[in-house]
Specification:
The chain is an alpha/beta fold. The protein has ten helices and ten strands. The protein has a six-stranded mixed beta sheet with strand order 4-3-5-10-6-9, with helices on both faces. Strands 1-2 form a two-stranded antiparallel ribbon. Helix 1 packs across helix 3 and helix 1 packs across helix 4. The chain is globular and about 65 Å long.
Length: 283
């Protein structure tokens, strides 16, 4: 039988803060303790789990590879505990509280502005906060507990502690400055595309390769308006969801679809306000 280590939420919170803040002093300030107390708490965490989490680099301490699994566990436990505390506060006081939603720009500006407006109008006592960012950033913030719900591109592979429900398939179309798209994919491009780290970029590149088109990328940006401006200037072609095609450019062939999902922390205390918004999105 495995004996469970006697860990405290506070120690796990220290570990998350050290990972997310730029330095030890900032991490200590975030959790409201002195740097020495932070150091003692993390040393105690190492002692209780029996695994060294840091190496010395001069006067600095840096994460060891073995810390990754402990850190992932800490992020999940801290986020779920925060959910529970918020739920308990609402249950005790009857307050509607706060709802923190993250969306990619196509979802926030193209697909769900009416849903957001209706929710805000129907729930004036809820402090509704909307964060617009790329999918990877939003999922990281959902995992850490900074967001309650996320609408984003379905990531490649599962995310620990996150459950996802499919909400729609977006058509991704070639956008040009006016010239028709040749039938021969070998004549397509050059391209101005989303940054190489984006989930959508991976979908686009895979589709272009499958069609036999060269992937000659001359400019990158995660901002659709920047990509459209580069196309208008004649820098190249782009691929965007149809909802972001804009005006004055030619919407050409659909080459792929990207899956949008509603992501939530798995196992979190059920928040009726968050569930109402989730149902509106899924509908």
């Amino acid at each position: 039988m495995i004996t469970l280590p006697d860990l405290s939420i506070r120690q796990l919170e220290y570990l998350v803060a050290v990972n997310e803040e730029p330095n030890w002093a900032a991490a200590a300030e975030r959790v409201g303790v002195s740097p020495s107390a932070l150091s003692q708490g993390l040393s105690e965490l190492e002692r209780r789990i029996g695994v060294a989490l840091f190496d010395r680099d001069g006067r600095r301490r840096v994460f060891r590879p073995a810390a990754a699994e402990v850190l992932a566990h800490a992020r999940q436990v801290v986020a779920l505990t925060t959910d529970l505390a918020a739920w308990a506060e609402r249950s005790r006081t009857g307050a509607s509280g706060q709802l923190r939603v993250g969306m990619i720009d196509a979802a926030a500006l193209g697909h769900y502005p009416d849903v957001i407006a209706r929710f805000r109008e129907g729930h004036p006592s809820v402090e509704f906060r909307l964060r617009v960012a790329p999918s990877g950033v939003l999922l990281d913030e959902l995992e850490s507990g900074s967001l309650d719900l996320v609408v984003c591109v379905d990531p490649v592979g599962a995310r620990r502690g996150i459950r996802m429900d499919h909400v729609m398939t977006e058509e991704l179309a070639i956008i040009t400055a006016g010239d028709p798209v040749p039938r021969d994919p070998a004549k397509w491009g050059p391209w101005v595309l989303f940054a190489a780290t984006s989930h959508t970029r991976a979908v686009i590149e895979r589709a272009l390769v499958d069609l036999g088109a060269p992937v000659d990328v001359v400019t990158e940006s995660n901002q659709p308006e920047v990509l459209r401006a580069m196309v208008a200037l004649g820098e190249g072609w782009t691929v965007l969801p149809k909802v972001q095609a804009g005006e004055g450019l030619r919407v050409g062939r659909v080459i792929a679809g990207r899956q949008l999902v509603l992501a939530r922390r798995d196992g979190a205390a059920v928040d009726p306000v968050a569930e109402m918004f989730a149902e509106a999105v899924l509908a």
